[in-house]
Every structure is written in C-alpha cells, then in structure tokens.
Design a protein that fits this description.
single chain, mainly alpha, 7 helices
Length: about 180
C-alpha cells in the first residue's frame, strides 16, 4: 500500500518526534532527526516539531527518574551520592541542561535523568529545558532546510556539529561549576 504525500508528511513528523523520544533510552542522533524535520518541513515547522520533541522527551526522562526507578538508583549509588548530586544540581543544574541539549553520546539524556534524580524543581527544569531545546531545534532545522537540496550533507553536518561542540560545552560547564 502506498501512502499519499499528506500521509507521508504526517508519518514523518510523528516518526521524528518518536525518534527524539527514543533518544531518552537509545543512542539516536537527535540533531540529525531535527535536521531531517527541517529538510521536510522547513525551518519554522521543523524547529517547532524539534522543540516539541526535545522538550517532551526531556520531560519523559525527568519523569522516569521521579518514579520507582529512583529507588533502584538510590540502592545502586547510595543516599550520600544522591545528596551530593542534589547539591550540585541546585547550584548549576539549570546551566547543565541548557548547555547539553545538542550534545552527542546521550549526554543530554544523562543530565535530564540526573535532574529528575536530584529532584530539581519542575518549573526550573522545564525553563532550562526549554531555553536549551528551542534554539537547538531551530538551529538544526535551519541546517536541514538550508541544505534541503543536499540532504546527505545536512545530515552529516547535523551529526558532526554536536561532536565538535562537545569540548566547548564541557569547558563552559566546568567553568560554571567552579
């Protein structure tokens, strides 16, 4: 059965958001997914869809760590380690969330999990998540839209750029923590 163009574009944005959600537990290159949304829908709609995916995926990861999964982690690392993490997140957790939203290697998901484990206040968490996610989503959707005529190049750039930004983000986070 062939899908119509309308059904294909609906399937694309649903698949894009589901892939971004999957990145919470699987190594999905979310920036490449957002660039693909930009290729298909353009900067504005691709950025909006990417923002929705990143923010809702972040909330899913945060919420997961506020469930019984927290008890498992508590037993695994110990109450004292969790208390140290809570203190660290109270001091610089919001910046860690903002600065890591585009990073590779599941760094943003780990930070979201840590925010949930540290019981970061939901308002502060969602503000930081939004501040970090929206610009990243629109930037990578713009990369996709800008190179829509060369989609392979757009996907390669959106995959490689976060890897190149990793040392910069880690340096800024280390400076903020000191």
């Amino acid at each position: 059965m062939l899908l119509t163009r309308s059904e294909n574009t609906t399937a694309a944005w649903v698949l894009g958001i589901v892939l971004i959600w999957a990145d919470v537990v699987l190594p999905v290159p979310q920036t490449a997914v957002i660039a693909a949304l930009g290729i298909i829908y353009g900067t504005l709609l691709g950025g909006l869809l990417g923002s929705v995916g990143l923010i809702s995926g972040g909330v899913l990861g945060y919420a997961l760590m506020r469930t019984s999964a927290r008890l498992f982690v508590d037993r695994l690392v110990g109450r004292q380690s969790l208390h140290k993490m809570e203190t660290l997140f109270n001091r610089s957790g919001a910046w860690a969330i903002v600065l890591t939203r585009s990073l590779p290697y599941s760094v943003p998901e780990a930070i979201v999990f840590l925010a949930g484990l540290a019981r970061m206040p939901m308002g502060k968490f969602t503000m930081a998540l939004t501040m970090g996610s929206v610009p990243i989503a629109f930037a990578f959707a713009a990369i996709g839209a800008g190179w829509a005529d060369q989609p392979i190049l757009a996907l390669i750039a959106s995959y490689a750029l976060p890897i190149l930004l990793l040392p910069i983000a880690l340096y800024v986070m280390r400076k903020r923590a000191s």
